[in-house]
Write a structure and sequence with these properties.
Layout: E1 8-12, E2 19-24, E3 42-48, H1 52-63, E4 69-75, H2 84-96, E5 104-109, H3 111-123, E6 130-134, H4 137-143, E7 148-153, E8 156-163, E9 168-172, H5 181-198, H6 200-214, H7 218-238, H8 255-265, H9 272-289, H10 295-307, H11 320-327, E10 339-345, E11 348-353, H12 356-363
Parallel strand pairs: 2-9, 3-4, 3-5, 5-6, 6-9
Antiparallel strand pairs: 1-2, 7-8, 10-11
Length: 364
């Protein structure tokens, strides 16, 4: 029998907004996990139609130890539903049930559920506490950490939102056992990203352990989640709101191209991690075109993404002009100038503009 990975904690150090990411096995259903959270009459679980049958009752039972009333809101599953209409399902439930400003929201699901619950928490009665309970690899290593909350607009991804930190992140590695292979690969894109832009030794560890990760090895998975969270915690603690330093923006390596793919195809056609993987290859090519890295670096990045089961070529249906159009509304754009996260050496990223000819060459 495989032994459980040891429980670990990663702190997001943000003064009075600091909180822990708790990483381990079988945490979701353990009532002790939620001790110390803000007191309230009501807790509300926000989840989706896929996750609810798997985990909602387990979380509800754990929360009943701490909250007299535990409610559920079940959203449709998918990036296509990350919009105002479905955000209002959360507000409707809060208002219809007379929830007050101490009500604690629990985001049970992947990145869409986490982003929408966080945005609802940031804005309901001008702010109520919330807890992230991510159930996908992508959300465990990326979207649940750092306080970015948002919904999509047809013109651009995550264009309407707020920075709003959770009270706690409960990362239960056990939930990854029910993750479809495609979703696992999508999550590995963000794992690989952390190595490329912040820790080359970690990238090399991923090269050596990719087979274990794809097989769901719990020790390898727990290590990857912890290191990815540590990397993101360091960055967020230095630059919570993507300030003038540009440090936090480097976490968006591959995302400018990737978001253009998602918007160009229609949200939900490709998974976010799939679009980011392809975007990272494009961003690596752009880095090469700028003379920052060599072809061997681009090849190495591309090979690992392929091993992870991810796409590395963009959809033929999106033209270069369409890419440029979608990227022009990227949140890093300033004064109409598109900014890109590029790699200036393995394991280190920076943000800069690039000539259109090099950008278009990177798409091919």
């Amino acid at each position: 029998m495989l032994s459980k990975p040891a429980l670990s904690r990663v702190c997001i150090a943000l003064a009075e907004r600091s909180y822990d990411i708790v990483i381990g096995m079988d945490l979701l259903s353990d009532s002790a996990t939620y001790a110390g959270l803000p007191k309230a009459e009501t807790a509300m679980i926000v989840t989706n139609a896929t996750i609810a049958p798997l985990y909602a009752k387990h979380l509800e039972n754990a929360l009943k130890t701490h909250y007299p009333r535990v409610l559920q809101v079940i959203l449709p599953d998918g990036e296509a539903y990350k919009d105002w209409k479905n955000l209002n399902l959360i507000f409707d439930a809060l208002l219809e049930n007379g929830c007050d400003r101490k009500t604690v929201l629990f985001a049970l699901g992947g990145g869409v559920v986490g982003d929408m619950t966080g945005f609802a928490a940031a804005t309901y009665m001008r702010g109520v506490p919330f807890v992230q309970v991510p159930t996908t690899l992508l959300s465990q290593v990326d979207s649940s950490v750092g306080g970015k909350t948002a919904i999509n607009h047809p013109i651009g991804k995550n264009m309407i939102g707020a920075f709003y930190q959770p009270s706690l992140v409960v990362t239960d590695i056990s939930t990854l056992s029910t993750l479809p292979a495609r979703e696992l690969s999508a999550g590995l894109a963000e794992v690989i990203k952390h190595g490329i832009m912040a820790d080359w030794a970690y990238f090399e560890w991923l090269e050596a352990n990719m087979d274990k990760l794809l097989q769901g090895d719990v020790a390898a998975m727990a290590y990857a989640v912890r290191v990815s969270c540590e990397i993101k915690a360091r960055v967020v603690s230095l630059d919570e709101r993507e300030g003038s330093s540009g440090i936090r923006a480097t976490l968006n390596f591959g995302h400018t191209f990737g978001h253009a793919i998602e918007a160009g195809l229609g949200f939900g056609v490709w998974l976010h991690g799939e679009a980011v993987a392809c975007g990272m290859v494009m961003a690596a090519r752009l880095s090469q075109g700028l003379g920052l890295v060599d072809a061997a670096f681009v090849e190495r990045v591309t090979k690992l993404l392929i091993r992870a089961g991810l796409p590395v070529a963009g959809p033929e249906s999106i033209t270069p002009d369409e890419y440029i159009h979608h990227m022009s509304v990227d949140k890093k754009a300033e004064g109409g100038q598109i900014k890109f996260v590029v790699i200036d050496k393995p394991g280190h990223a920076k943000v800069q503009a690039a000539p259109n000819d090099l950008v278009i060459a990177a798409l091919k």
